[in-house]
């Protein structure tokens, strides 16, 4: 019955490393869980599957083992803090794009089995705009682009948006400014990005808000804990709480985009195959 339950699928991406995507993914997951949502975090940052490290969790198996048929998806799910569940992905996601029909069916089945007790699937994508990243982002229903106040962050975010718009006809993106020093800085970053997208692309960007630069993030990392859990009263945690409330009000997917099956279907589609 999993397919009757709409699941919000959100890809957290940025186009480059060092913008704090994993930090955003983990803390947004925790903030949504605190609102009563059943959250699963898919760690798709494969070369550096780092959610488990960040939270001090030990992973024995990952999504690759599920695809290979060595275990069930439930065998790889880790219990994270705050009731969130974490699925460690595998190194070299590109192999996702080359699954056999049988593996493909197995993966869809595995995710649809989870769909019954899941409201939100957050995907922490890898850095860059490689095949693995693009396939995850393209399959998601909401794309959250994380930017920071570094010259390359805006150009790399733009490159990612341009690629997704040109090759996959995606035209709706949400933007989150991370590690901002002032409230204006986030708005300014968003303005910089929209200035180029408005000029060259036919896309709609929506500003989600900013997460302030906060010393407690580093302290939490040293403890291998999420800042939201370790320092709930910090400026950073409060900002995540506000953003989670906003995310929670985003429209739920209409059929059939809300199905996890549909997400996985799109995930394993070949680029250029427009039959979905």
Strand order of the largest sheet: 3-4-2-5-1-6-7-8
Summarize the biggest pleated sheet.
8 strands, mixed
N-to-C SSE string, H for helix and E for strand: EHEHHHEEHEHEHEHEHHHH
**Structural class of the secondary structure composition?**
alpha/beta
CATH architecture: 3-Layer(aba) Sandwich
Number of self-contained structural domains: 1
What Rg, in angstroms, do the CA atoms define? 17 Å
Which word captures the global form? Answer: globular
- Per the CATH scheme, the topology name is Rossmann fold
Portion in helices? 40-55%
Low-confidence stretches: none
Layout: helices, strands, pairs:
Layout: E1 8-13, H1 21-34, E2 39-44, H2 51-54, H3 63-67, H4 73-76, E3 78-79, E4 85-88, H5 101-114, E5 120-125, H6 131-139, E6 142-147, H7 151-168, E7 172-180, H8 183-200, E8 204-212, H9 215-222, H10 227-230, H11 235-248, H12 260-267
Parallel strand pairs: 1-5, 1-6, 2-4, 2-5, 6-7, 7-8
Antiparallel strand pairs: 3-4
Helix pairs in contact: 1-11, 5-12, 6-12, 7-8
Pfam family, one: ParA
Protein name: MinD/ParA family protein
InterPro entries: FlhG (IPR033875), MinD_FleN (IPR025501), P-loop_NTPase (IPR027417), ParA/MinD_ATPase (IPR050625), YlxH/NBP35 (IPR033756)
């Amino acid at each position: 019955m999993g397919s009757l339950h709409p699941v919000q699928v959100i890809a957290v991406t940025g186009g480059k490393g060092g913008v704090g995507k994993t930090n955003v993914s983990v803390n947004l997951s925790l903030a949504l869980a605190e609102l009563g949502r059943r959250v699963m975090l898919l760690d798709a940052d494969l070369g550096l599957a780092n959610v488990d490290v960040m939270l001090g969790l030990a992973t024995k198996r990952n999504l690759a083992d599920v695809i290979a048929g060595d275990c069930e998806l439930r065998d790889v799910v880790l219990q994270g803090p705050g009731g969130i569940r974490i699925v460690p992905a595998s190194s070299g996601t590109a192999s996702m794009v080359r699954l056999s029909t049988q593996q493909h069916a197995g993966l869809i089945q595995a995710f649809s089995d989870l769909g019954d007790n899941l409201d939100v699937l957050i995907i922490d994508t890898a850095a860059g705009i490689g095949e693995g990243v693009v396939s995850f982002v393209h399959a998601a229903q909401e794309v959250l682009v994380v930017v920071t106040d570094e010259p390359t962050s805006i150009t790399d975010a733009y490159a990612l948006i341009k690629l997704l718009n040109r090759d996959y006809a995606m035209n709706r993106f949400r933007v989150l400014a991370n590690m901002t020093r002032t409230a204006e800085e986030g708005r300014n970053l968003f303005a910089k990005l929209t200035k180029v997208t408005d000029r060259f692309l036919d896309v709609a960007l929506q500003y989600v808000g900013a997460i302030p630069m906060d010393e407690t993030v580093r302290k939490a990392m040293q403890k291998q804990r999420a800042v939201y859990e370790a320092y709930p009263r910090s400026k950073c945690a409060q900002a995540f709480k506000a953003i989670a409330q906003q995310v929670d009000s985003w429209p739920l997917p209409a059929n059939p985009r809300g199905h996890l099956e549909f997400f996985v279907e799109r995930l394993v589609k070949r680029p250029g195959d427009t039959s979905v």
